[in-house]
Amino acid sequence: MEYKMLFSPMKIGNCEIKNRIVMSPMLMGFGQFDGCVTEQLMDYYEERAKGGTGLIITEITRINDVHGSAAFAQLGASHDYQIAGLHEFAERIHKYGAKLFVQLHHPGRQNVGLAIGTVPVCIAMTRMFKSFPKTLFKIAPKIAPFMSKHNLALSSVSASKCEPSYFAGGRVRALSHREVKKVIRQFIDGAVRCQKAGIDGVELHGTHGYLIQQFLSPNTNHRTDEYGGSFENRLRFLREIVDGIRKECGDYPIIVRLTLDEFYSKIGKPEKGYNFETGLKYAKAIADMGVDAIDVSSAAYDTFNYWLEPTSFECGWRKYLAAAVKKEVKIPVLAANLIRTPEQAERQLEEGDQDFVSLGRPLIADPHWAEKAQSGHENEIKRCICCLYCIQSMQDNAYHGDHGYCAVNPTVGREKEFDNLPKDGNGRVVVVVGAGVAGLTCAEMLGRRGFKAIVLEKDNQIGGQIQLADKPPKKEKLGWSFEDMRTNAEKFGAEIHLNTEATPEVIASYNPYAVVVATGACAVKPRSIEGVNLENVYTTTQILSGEVKLEN
Ligand SMILES: Cc1cc2nc3c(=O)[nH]c(=O)nc-3n(C[C@H](O)[C@H](O)[C@H](O)COP(=O)(O)O)c2cc1C
Ligand code: SF4
């Protein structure tokens, strides 16, 4: 299929983007305490630029180190010393004809304990003692839960003193009037640094419940000064940031990422926050401020599933939000609205839902999504299955000094290594036992190295345990994982033999150079649970495979 709209250029302000594919901002934890770029971070983004993405928007990038730092391993635009690294980063993205915007961010009340107030100390300590990060990451996993249990963390800040957000917890204090002015200044300074570094534009993070949204939302903004109260006053914080950037950076492109509906109605609290009607009013007012594009999103931490969907949500379910904004404004509209395939992306562009398709997790799962679509190899795209392992692992690993991972893409964070796989297989045969996700991925990697993979599967189908996991209602996306892995394994020459038990004789008949055992896992019945051996107790495998039918 030809994707005419997807691969047509379009401008955001004065910046021409070669196609309509945008990498949505995503923190994966490849940074370091001082907010400077790292090789690993640049490799990760560069792979997505190489894979044909038109515009890359970075992860949350801090503008304030003290209460505005949301993670130890995030980018910063809070100091001049970060400019040189950002410049190198931009050059590496530009090599592939892609553009790079930085997402400027302050978490406000959605900040977790250990990150508040500690980053400047960590920077200073790392400068004095090279081994400091190692020591910190040994003790941090123990300190963090202790601090949150005993409420020892410094307060996070917000538009007003308000209840903590679900998930972040802690105590929240109001920013003073002077602090509000200072944070506005810090956003402007962040944009100035990005411009100096040759970054193509900035995105202001006004969604997912972070500080800018906390000013917009009556749920968190109860101020009585000029930054609270009326619709216009709640918008003032953002307006002053936009005006300041315009004044200092001229026509430098600015995108605002906006929550169109906080979706409190979805969790049975319609009286809280702001809804679609107000969100649309905000979108119009923001377009009138003279920004260059609006990136439509939704929700906040309290309503987490409605901005970062688990696997049960239907593709495109919230495209109506972007479509409504597009009808009201004359500037480009971007949106990450659960797009998984190029067909869906093209359709949403054709139907006028949005001007740019933002892909978050799809580009973690497959950095070459765009290039595969453009070259007619869309069937080789490894689709994101919305399992949320990326965000979970990123958060779990944050205090261990490690980054996020992907359930379907083992190359995340190791892009250089996998780009330079040795081609030393010389056609030698390797037998892989098991056609589950491990066996199929192994077969692809062997093929990439020039080995001939023979996959033996005793079942009559591929997929192993995942082939059961996708059986319950609304879990179909999980099945995409092994379908796509099969396509890619076969592309690299793997032979898959179903209904074939890997007996010593069968294996020996291939005269293999090596054998990989990838037989996966079995459901267990923990003996410690009383009654586990009763006749009416079954494993998930027995039920999902249909061996046991549940009745009554
Ligand atoms: C691991 C992870 C980190 C994220 N970090 C950010 C972020 O830094 N800034 C942001 O605006 N959104 C962030 N998001 C949300 C994505 O930009 C995107 O809106 C969301 O994943 C839904 O789009 P998708 O279904 O295409 O992934 C993150 C999402 C994930 C999975
Ligand atoms: S497949 Fe899972 S881990 Fe990978 S990007 Fe999608 S949601 Fe994240």
Report a brief summary of the structure.
With 552 residues, the protein is an alpha/beta fold. Helix content is 35%, strand content 13%.
> What is the CATH top level name of the largest domain?
Alpha Beta
Spatial strand arrangement across the major sheet: 3-4-6-9-10-11-12-13
Q: Gap between N and C termini, in Å?
A: 48 Å
Low-confidence stretches: none
| Overall residue-averaged pLDDT value | 96
Question: What is the CATH fold-level name of the largest domain?
Answer: TIM Barrel
Rg: 25 Å
Total DSSP E strands: 17
Number of domains: 2
Corresponding CATH superfamily of the largest domain:
Aldolase class I
Key descriptive features of the protein:
17 strands; TIM Barrel; binds flavin mononucleotide; Rossmann fold; four-stranded parallel sheet; 19 helices; single chain; 2 domains
Would you give an account of this structure?
With 552 residues, the protein is α/β, with parallel strands linked by helices. The model has no long low-confidence stretch (mean pLDDT 96). An eight-stranded parallel barrel has the order 3-4-6-9-10-11-12-13, surrounded by seven helices. The protein has two domains: 10-415, Alpha-Beta Barrel (TIM Barrel); 422-517, 3-Layer(aba) Sandwich (Rossmann fold), CATH 3.40.50. Helix 15 links the parallel strand 14 and strand 15 (452-456). It has helices at residues 39-50, 83-94, 119-128, 132-149, 177-196, 211-216, 231-249, 276-288, 319-328, 342-350, 361-365, 369-374, 389-397, 415-419, 437-448, 466-469, 478-491, 504-509, 540-544; strands spanning 10-12, 15-17, 21-23, 55-62, 75-76, 99-105, 156-158, 172-174, 201-206, 254-259, 293-297, 333-335, 356-359, 429-433, 452-456, 495-497, 514-517. 35% of the residues lie in helices and 13% in strands. It binds flavin mononucleotide and iron/sulfur cluster (SF4).
